[in-house]
Amino acid sequence: MTSDTPGEMPEDEARVRELMRLLRKADEAAGEEQVLGEFRIPRSRIPARHSGTIGSLTKTEVAVLRFLGWGRANADIATLLAISENTVRVHLNNMCGKLQLDGVRELNALAGLLFHPLT
Which H helix or E strand runs over 36? Predict the structure, then answer.
């Protein structure tokens, strides 16, 4: 639903802002980080289900995951990493297998949780 009143934000936007506020608070409270490839991820963002297996990702897989979390398309990721689009798909499928996910949609959600900026 959207708000018709001037000055009020839509209900969905308010929910997203509240979620981002809670994630920032959890990031600050946790203090601990896990290194993934070249990146440091607050442990509070890593679901318990994946805490053991996420460390098995290669540096390239983590880079692909990072760009996926930023909302980049496969073709963009391929260009940014100087690899083929088919190689990007192979990395996505390998990550789904390693993390025991049902598909790229779940991987996309996880990538957003791990790497989406909260600012």
Answer: strand 33-36
Q: What is the mean pLDDT of residues 28-53?
A: 79
CATH number reported for the structural domain that contains residue 36 in this entry? 1.10.10.10
Give 80 or 50, the one with higher predicted confidence: 80
Q: With respect to residue 5, please indicate whether it lies within any of the assigned structural domains.
A: no
Place of tokens 């802002």: 17
pLDDT of residue 3: 46
- Do the Cβ atoms of 46 and 65 come closer than 8 Å? no
Q: What integer pLDDT is reported at residue 28 of this predicted model?
A: 66
Residue 46 structural domain: 11-115
Query: Which helix or strand (DSSP H or E) is residue 41 part of?
Result: strand 39-42
pTM over 0.85: no
H-helix or E-strand containing 80?
A: helix 74-81
